[in-house]
Structure formats: structure tokens, C-alpha cells
UniProtKB/TrEMBL annotation:
Gene Ontology terms, MF aspect: methyltransferase activity
UniProt catalytic activity: 4-demethyl-7-[(3S)-3-amino-3-carboxypropyl]wyosine(37) in tRNA(Phe) + S-adenosyl-L-methionine = 7-[(3S)-3-amino-3-carboxypropyl]wyosine(37) in tRNA(Phe) + S-adenosyl-L-homocysteine + H(+)
Ranges annotated as biased composition (Basic and acidic residues): 247-261
Transmembrane helix as UniProt keyword: no
E.C. number: 2.1.1.282
Domain tRNA wybutosine-synthesizing protein: 6-167
Chain ranges of the TRM5/TYW2-like methyltransferase domain: 439-484
Superkingdom, natural source: Eukaryota
Protein name per the record: tRNA(Phe) 7-[(3-amino-3-carboxypropyl)-4-demethylwyosine(37)-N(4)]-methyltransferase
Statement: the UniProt record of this protein carries the keyword Chloroplast: no
GO BP field: methylation; tRNA processing
Comp. bias intervals (Low complexity): 262-271
Lineage: Eukaryota, Sar, Alveolata, Dinophyceae, Suessiales
EC class: transferase
Length: 520
């Protein structure tokens, strides 16, 4: 998260359910023993009850006089030291907006501390006094169910806090971080903008603008600067390095370049003239890699003016469809019986307005990890199942025009290849999608299992130049190199990420030569 070098956490707890046995004297905080401390819900209250009984029986006697055994639900708490009071105040306002109302700031001589917490969900109930139980098993299990519910709500609030902090720190970091823009000629500006929007690399909070000429890079009056997101900067820098390495390894082809330049000049209108609108070809997304190789693009640092109303981040299908999700939710809330709590409804509407842009993989719409989650969303989704117009997620899917709606999940760290992971929310059919990539290549993969990257086109092109006549080539990328290596004698194919659970690609037989290739 940007600006985190200005914030240091000093202590924290994600929230827990605990049972503590100690002194009943509030002035005596020494000693005691934790009989239970769980940062997740208690799945077997009956077993926990038996363990508490056994422990109290085994420790009965004089030592239990003046003791108190207590069930606790302790919500999330975070202490952070900030570089200055202004940053601490900003962090505090975000925390309170996320539902942590009892948060505050402590000012010392040299330290500014923020304490983020809420007491609304806290639970503290005595279970035993002097070693004698005060409750029965039924009441104990009821308390555990209540504690589990509050711990789930605690997790939802914590996730909401994390999302809001990331968003807030990202906005604060705009002035502090290096602001990069992609520079191109005005002739290419619209097509380059479409390409950046397609990759979600265009910073919609800043305006694209003509750059002043006369800098050391040779910008002229026709140069347009397009603002980039940090992700866009990283990807374009990687592209630049790849192109530079390839150009350094290749000999320049002067004659061919001259011919291509002459052809390009002949195809363009005369200086100062413009084609009539009816004769202009439709604008298509530019091939950024090709333009970079031609020297038509470059990166530079420049400050561009902020938009008066920052637009939502762009995606492959950004626009009115995503913004209309708010109206879909409003309509659903109006249909719910009994009516939804006003405060809860406002919170859900605010979350949907502030959520990151929907990502697209083929005809599958993906919500970002952590978006629209928590017990409140689960409650509304459950209530909406009984409505005639379809459930919450199905309505969202129809609004977006997607075949399937899913949410990105944590990458599976227990997976040998750290495969992708999504939660399907609505829609039907398999997770297989077809995504157009660079160089006219179509990629087919299961979006529920595979993570997709549009990069590495230059590396694929380089590998495709290897001489493989008469060789046997093992393709571990599920047919991605079938056509480039068509000269090979034999091409066994499989996906290296699926050695244990290989599933033949649904459409692999439609484009692979049957004699040349063998799907393993």
C-alpha cells in the first residue's frame, strides 16, 4: 500500500473468541490461564463445553476461590504509529467510516498513535465463579453461536477497513508518488487510449493532455500524454526492457525500415489536412507492443491535471453497465419485505459505488477480491432468493451482460503452481473462456483455475524463431506453441500446471494438427 513507509503498526489482533480463567479481583491482573483462544469460529461447542468442565473439575479446591472464568469476544484492534498528525487524522476518519467508531488518536512528544477498534461487538460473559459453573450447556452453546456470528461480522468489518484504507492511501499517494504518463503522437492518441483502457492501465483520475514541446526527449507540439496507473507503468517498463533486449540482439534492417516508413507516409493524409468524418476508419485499440517497437511511444514523468469528478477505473467493459449496478441494488432493496434497515442499505450502496472496476475474461465478469463481501451482503443475497426477479448476484450478472459472474479469491498457496481461485456467484456453463491476446493469438483457458497474463508476447515470438526441424518438442503450455513449432517432427502437448488433474482443452482439436500433435 502506498505511503506505508509513513505508517508502522505497533500491535494488532484480528479478533478472537477466548475463555480466560483468572482472578475475580479487577485490581489483580497477574496470573490466569487461557482455556481457549481462537481467531476463527468455534466449530464444536459441545466438545469445548466438555473440555471446560474437565478442566474445572481437575483444578477444583482452595486454588479456585476468588477466581472467575469468562467467555470473551474481542474484536479487531490495531495500533499504528503515523509520521504526522495529518496522516493519523486521515487514517482515523477512514476507520470510523468503516464502522470502527471507538477509534482515536494519542499524541505524545515524539509519537502520533492511531488506535482502530470498536466495542460494538465485544462480548464478556462469566461462565464460572470459584470453580463452579454458572451456566448450563444449552446456554453455553447459545453464547458460542452468538460469538461466532460476531466474529464473522468482525471479519467483514476488517475486510471493509482494509479496502477503504487501500483506496484512501492510494488517493493520498498521488501527490507523493512518481506520476508517469505514456507519450504518443496525437495521431495515435485515441487508439492508444483504447488499448490502455482495455488493460485497465489508464489512470481515470487524471486528464490526458497535450504536452509542452522542447524537452530533452524530443517532444513536439503534437505529443499527447496519457496518465498511467502504477500497474500500467510496471507493465510498460517491462515491455520497454524486453524490446530493448531484443533490439540489442538483432541487426538493424535499414532497407526494410525505409520502405515501411515510405509506405506509412503515403498512407497518411497530407500535412495539415484531415479526412472527412465519413471517410475516417473506425478507431480500434492500438497494438502497444508494435508502436513501442516503432519508437512511437515512450514513458516520462509529468503532472497532469486531476479530473473534477474522478471516474471509476476502466476495464475491458467499463461504462454505464457497471455504474447501473447501483440502480439494480436500489430496486432490489425496494422489493425486500420486511424493508432493509436504512443504515445498512446506505452502507451497501456506498460499497457498490466505491468498489473497484469489474474485470473481464471473455464473457465472464470478475469482482475483485474482497468486493461486496461480509455478512450484510450474505443477508441481502439470502433474502433476495425469494424474489421473482432472481437473486442478488443473478441480477448483477444480467445487468453486466455476462455469462457468468464470479469473485476473485486468495491465490491458493497450498497449490504447487499457485493457481488461480475464483468463487462463482451466478451464471451457468463451464469456466472456459477465449481471450484475444497480442499478435492475433487467442487464448482459451478455465478462468476458475488459471490466472491469465497478456504479457510475454515478445518472449513467445523469440522462442518461435528457434530451429526445430526434425526435433521432438514438448509443449508444456497446452498448445500455445503448436503453430510456431509446426516444423517439428512431433509435438507432445500438455499444461504444466495440471500434471495431476489434466483435462483436455475443449476446443484443442479444432486448431491443432492431428498428425503433428499429441495431447498427453
Amino acid at each position: 500500500m502506498p505511503l506505508l513507509y509513513k505508517v508502522v503498526t505497533t500491535s494488532s489482533c484480528s479478533g478472537r473468541i477466548a475463555i480466560f480463567h483468572g482472578s475475580a479481583d479487577t485490581g489483580n491482573s497477574k496470573g490466569g490461564q487461557w482455556l481457549l483462544a481462537s481467531h476463527s469460529t468455534v466449530e464444536n461447542p459441545g466438545k469445548t463445553w466438555e473440555e471446560i468442565q474437565e478442566w474445572l473439575q481437575s483444578h477444583s479446591g482452595q486454588d479456585t476461590l476468588g477466581t472467575l472464568t469468562t467467555l470473551l469476544l474481542e474484536p479487531f484492534v490495531l495500533h499504528a504509529e503515523c509520521a504526522d498528525a495529518g496522516l493519523a487524522q486521515h487514517m482515523l476518519s477512514v476507520a470510523r467510516e468503516a464502522g470502527f467508531r471507538e477509534s482515536g488518536i494519542s499524541l505524545g512528544r515524539k509519537r502520533v498513535l492511531v488506535q482502530i477498534r470498536t466495542l460494538a461487538m465485544r462480548l464478556e460473559v462469566p461462565l464460572a465463579m470459584d470453580g463452579q459453573l454458572l451456566v448450563d450447556e444449552t446456554y453455553f452453546q447459545t453464547l458460542i453461536r452468538l460469538a461466532n456470528q460476531r466474529l464473522d461480522e468482525n471479519l467483514a468489518r476488517t475486510n471493509r477497513l482494509w479496502m477503504k484504507l487501500k483506496e484512501a492511501f492510494s488517493r493520498c499517494a498521488v501527490a507523493a508518488q512518481e506520476l508517469w504518463v505514456l507519450v504518443c503522437a496525437q495521431l495515435h492518441a485515441r487508439s492508444v487510449k483504447l488499448a490502455l483502457e482495455g488493460h485497465a492501465w489508464l489512470d481515470d483520475n487524471r486528464k490526458m493532455q497535450r504536452l509542452a514541446g522542447g524537452d530533452e526527449k524530443g517532444a513536439d507540439d503534437d505529443s499527447i500524454g496519457l496518465p498511467l496507473t502504477p500497474e500500467g507503468v510496471e507493465n510498460l517498463k517491462a515491455l520497454a526492457e524486453t524490446v530493448e533486449e531484443e533490439m540489442a540482439q538483432r541487426e538493424p534492417v535499414v532497407e526494410e525500415t525505409k520502405i515501411n516508413d515510405q509506405a506509412d507516409q503515403a498512407a497518411q493524409p497530407a500535412q495539415g489536412s484531415k479526412l472527412p468524418k465519413r471517410q475516417r476508419p473506425p478507431i480500434e485499440a492500438a497494438n502497444l507492443e508494435a508502436l513501442w517497437r516503432q519508437g512511437s511511444l515512450r514513458l516520462t514523468q509529468a503532472e497532469l491535471p486531476l479530473k473534477s469528478r474522478p471516474a471509476p477505473a476502466s476495464g475491458l467493459h467499463s461504462g454505464a453497465k457497471e455504474r447501473s449496478l447501483e440502480q439494480v441494488l436500489r430496486n432490489l432493496i425496494d422489493e425486500l419485505k420486511p424493508p432493509l434497515d436504512v443504515t445498512l442499505a446506505d452502507t451497501l450502496l456506498k460499497e457498490i459505488c466505491e468498489m473497484p472496476s469489474v474485470l473481464w475474461r471473455g464473457d465472464v465478469a470478475l469482482l475483485t477480491r474482497g468486493a461486496l463481501t461480509g455478512s450484510s451482503w450474505e443477508t441481502v443475497a439470502l433474502a433476495a432468493e425469494a424474489l421473482p426477479g432472481g437473486g442478488l448476484w443473478e441480477r448483477f450478472r444480467q445487468c453486466l451482460g455476462a455469462r457468468m459472474l464470479a469473485r476473485q479469491q486468495e491465490i491458493r498457496v497450498d497449490d504447487e503452481v499457485r493457481g488461480g481461485n475464483v468463487q462463482v456467484l451466478a451464471g451457468s456453463g463451464s469456466g472456459w473462456v477465449v481471450v484475444p491476446g497480442p499478435k492475433g493469438v487467442r487464448y482459451s483457458f478455465d478462468v476458475t483455475k488459471c490466472m491469465f497474463s497478456e504479457g510475454n508476447a515478445g518472449e513467445k515470438e523469440r522462442v518461435a524463431t528457434w530451429p526445430v526441424e526434425g526435433e521432438t518438442v514438448l509443449d508444456l503450455y497446452a498448445g500455445a506453441f503448436a503453430h510456431p513449432h509446426a516444423a517439428a517432427a512431433h509435438l507432445p502437448i500438455r499444461d504444466w500446471t495440471s500434471w495431476k488433474n489434466w483435462k483436455t482443452y475443449e476446443d484443442i482439436s479444432s486448431f491443432l494438427p492431428p498428425v503433428l500433435c499429441t495431447v498427453l
